[in-house]
TrEMBL record:
Coiled coil: none annotated. One of its GO terms (molecular function) is nucleic acid binding. It comes from Pseudonocardia asaccharolytica DSM 44247 = NBRC 16224. This is Ribonuclease D. Residues 234-314 form the HRDC domain. Residues 1-25 are annotated as: Disordered. Residues 7-23 have a biased composition (Low complexity). InterPro entries: 3'-5'_exonuclease_dom (IPR002562), Exo_C (IPR041605), HRDC-like_sf (IPR010997), HRDC_dom (IPR002121), HRDC_dom_sf (IPR044876), RNase_D-like (IPR051086), RNaseH-like_sf (IPR012337), RNaseH_sf (IPR036397). It holds the Pfam family DNA_pol_A_exoN. One of its GO terms (biological process) is nucleobase-containing compound metabolic process.
Length: 412
């Protein structure tokens, strides 16, 4: 156990959780210069055991996903709150002492990219959120896990706050410090629970898959994710949505402002459907009447005018062809046998998930399941098909036999 091992590891069901209001040992000063950063590097090099790691971004406020605060904790080194901004977003001084220890994060995939941007990359990790899922716990947010397993209550957090703000308020820093203060103890309890259930090796495979996952490929035609786009069917109107989305994205990137704060999706859809024929007509629409938008009227109208002038062959298609199966709702009409295979597979996996206390989506990725059921492997090697879809060995061992049977199902 870590230096918090004097706390009760698992709270009795009837016990009232203890509020965790201040960091043990007090709130550390924010590390914001090279001298302090080198001192922290030395302290963490002299520490022992895993390192709790967290990062705060300004999602919803900034275009970038950069880290605006990095929190660290290790036995023998206490807690460090590091501000990457005055340090030029370069924390590589910390890389050597953090290279070998296991990192403990909650929802690791959300933070690994921004940590890599500042020069910090783990060689091993433990994800407490995923561990909770594999352990079959009903609520896997950090707060509920801490309350259920440690008997502590974290105060309502500031995770959705604008962490690009400076100076950072003290209560935000307290929140950030407490997040890493509980991670090491939580990791030990979850590891013990997984070991008791015979799932620790499963978890280790999952953690390594997260650690080594390649960066996500850019989404083709990301403008199609504009909220409310289902209301737009005609190619010319879709072109207007695309033009406004791209104009907004350019401006948001230049100003490092979240796109929705530059222009909401609802305004993009409204302007595309209204098809205003002049800047004045655009400025008459509700969102565009505001002072900040009035200054950009010509900019937005230029995007709409460009879309209106596109030749037919440059207009977007109403739908985008994919390399995957059609929507499941259409399977019964398109391929009744495939629908029967998927139904049989889902039933078998639901039973397995209940038996093993693991969510079905953690047994096999839903998209991979649909692909295998829609187009079963020609050679019948379900295990190889799952491996090709990046399923982990533990998943293949459990799921392949069930899918082999499910793929024999036929429509009645």
């Amino acid at each position: 156990m870590n230096d918090a091992s004097d706390r009760t590891a698992t709270a009795p069901a009837e016990a009232e959780p203890t509020p965790l209001l201040r960091p043990k040992g007090g709130l550390p000063p924010v590390v914001a210069d090279d001298v302090a950063l080198h001192r922290i590097a030395e302290e963490f090099a002299a520490g022992s055991g895993p390192v709790a790691v967290d990062a705060e971004r300004a999602s919803g406020f900034r275009y970038s996903q950069r880290a605006y605060l990095v929190q660290l904790r290790r036995a023998g080194a206490s807690t460090a709150l590091v501000d990457p901004i005055p340090l030029g977003s370069d924390l590589s001084v910390l890389a050597p002492p953090l290279r070998e220890p296991e990192w403990v994060l909650h929802a690791a995939s959300q933070d690994l990219a921004c940590l890599a941007e500042v020069g910090l990359v783990p060689s091993r990790l433990f994800d407490t959120e995923l561990a909770g899922r594999l352990a079959g716990l009903p609520r896997v947010g950090l707060g509920p896990l801490v309350e259920q397993l440690l008997g502590l209550r974290l105060e309502k957090g500031h995770g959705a706050a604008d962490w690009s703000r400076r100076p950072l308020p003290e209560d935000w820093l307290v929140y950030a410090a407490l997040d890493v203060e509980v991670l090491l103890e939580l990791r030990d309890v979850l590891a013990g629970l997984l070991a008791e259930q015979g799932k620790l090796e499963w978890a280790e495979q999952e953690f390594e898959a997260i650690r080594t996952a390649p960066p996500p490929a850019p989404r083709p035609e990301p403008w199609r994710r504009t909220s409310g786009i289902h209301k737009v069917r005609k190619p010319r109107l879709l072109a207007a949505v695309r033009a406004l989305w791209e104009a907004r994205d350019t401006l948001a990137a230049e100003r490092d402002i979240a796109p929705g704060r530059v222009l909401p999706d609802s305004a993009i859809i409204e302007a595309a459907v209204a098809a205003p024929e002049s800047p004045q007509a655009l400025a008459a629409l509700p969102v565009f009447r505001g002072r900040s938008q009035r200054r950009l009227t010509e900019y937005w109208f230029a995007a709409l005018a460009e879309a209106a002038g596109l030749p037919h062959q440059q207009l977007p298609r109403p739908t985008v062809p994919t390399d995957g199966p059609p929507p499941v709702a259409r399977w019964s009409d398109r391929d009744p046998d495939a629908a029967a295979r998927l139904a049989a597979a889902r039933a078998a996996l639901a039973a397995l998930g209940e038996q093993r206390a693991v969510p079905v989506e953690n047994l096999v990725q839903p998209d991979l399941l649909r692909r295998v059921c829609w187009s079963p492997p020609a050679d019948g090697d379900v295990a190889a098909a799952l491996c090709a879809g990046d399923a982990r060995p533990w998943q293949v061992e459990l799921v392949a036999p069930l899918l082999e049977q499910a793929l024999l199902a036929r429509a009645s």
